Amino acid sequence: MGGPIILLLLMMALLSHEFSPADPLKINSRNILKSPSRENLLGTDQLGRDILSRIIYASRISFSVAGAAVLIAVLVGVFLGLLLGYFEGWLQNIGMRVIDILVCVPEIFIAIVVVAFLGSSLMTLILTIGFLYFPQFTRVTQGITLSMKRREFILASVSVGAGTYRIIFRGILPNISSLVIVQTSFTLSFAMLLEAGLSFLGLGIMPPTPSWGQMIGELKNYIYINPLPVIFPAIALFLAVFSINMVGDWLQDRLNPEIIK
Amino acid sequence: MLQFLIRRSVASLIIIFLATTLVFLIIHLLPGDPVILLLGEQGAANPEFVDKLRKKLKLDLPLHIQYYEWMKGLSHFDFGNSLQNDVPVIQELVRRIPRSLELIFGGLLISILVGIPIGVLGAEHPNGLWGWISSTFAVLGFSSPSFVTGIVLIIIFSLSLRFLPSSGYVSFSENAMENLRYAFLPSITLGFGFVGVVIRMTRASLLDVINKDYIRTARAKGLSEKGVLYKHALPNALIPVISILGVRAGNLLGGTVIIESLFNWPGLSSLLVKGCFDRDYPMIQGTLLSIFVIFVLISLCVDLCHALLDPKLRQEY
Questions:
Q1: Is the ipTM of this complex over 0.85?
Q2: Prediction pTM value
């Protein structure tokens, strides 16, 4: 059920130019905070910009930031997890403890401080969010790797003389992919929420580039003048997160039926 | 039991100590010269100002001396003074921490009061109406970002019904009733995000427990269905729920950031955001540290409750 929504949103993101009726950056000070009308299907924001267009372009930003960040998190996290899980020793033990602690930290606080200091360029945002979420992947990967290591087919590879590289990448990696895929979908929604939260506070995507969180943050101040504009980016964000979670749940059911939710 | 308590407390203290070091490192290793940022372009052009501010902030001292000063200050709760108005950071922290705790507590209360009954009903009628309601509610709660819930609530209750205020704060000592009125919407918003987790966990855990042997025994002994539920099934089923609470305590704390900003609630998280915008380094340090400490303490409390309820845990130690 979440599938169609996701596809629609993704299409919106990729084909923003075709979909959006107006220029998302065009200011029109005589037309501010208007409700939906024939010209502006979802109304206008506090600078007169068309909300529908901004929402469409914002989908681009939200998806790319979340996607890129999760990509980094997956690459770094899984790689580290494989290493920590496969090789044993005191260094690995320390590493695992550190990862355990890192997983517990509430990400948003670190994100706020880091972005406040390092600025809110796209690169900084992506890297920060990516690094905040890699420990979860490491933990999942290392757990699986540890248990996989003792399985017969791995021991068989070792006895035949397979090199470490081959064992890790050909033997273990394919077996963890289902877990990683499920984790990726959930982390995607978290990353999107984190970016939205930062933008909401004024620390994330800076105007005039639109982002759903940023739009909500700006428009919430005008609720008493006109509550309608703020609802639309909120719905967009909700739909995106909701559909990602639905897809994630579905993947979870398909790929990992034995794991209790 | 005492042993467990001591072990966990010691572990928490160690973590708090590590947190203080971590906070120091975060602030001092991030690139960007604080002095230049604070003085702005014009001020920074004047080397005299730069030097004076640097001395005042003690940034000219080597890193390990700064670290020592920081730790020394912490030992008698001196977090330094705010760069904005030279008021001791600890003063503002003490004012704001209870406010955030109030929201967290409120959110927890609401999510427990609403979540557990719905979860129980969902477990009792898994394929009936309540089962469907509990699943849907859970997913909605889990997926709704706090801003969305908050804004919807504001629009319904503040705008249309004009029943509850949408922002602001009145302290408890001034006017308890008003304080609760202002706290109501933010707490519900915070709780709503969490209620989904509670519902799911309660339902799954209760379904799990209902099939256990000791429940069959209780029924065989002649205990009424309600008696079985409330005396035997529920208490055992709630244990995993409490442990989930501990794990997700961080989420609740993180949730306060958005909520405090949305409702203009002057709590700890908004202090952090304000400090970041103002580049108020002592404030940021103090606030970040307090947040970590609160997080550790919440986890500790939840672990203790968990151990109280589940004797098996105590035996491990």
A1: no
A2: 0.83
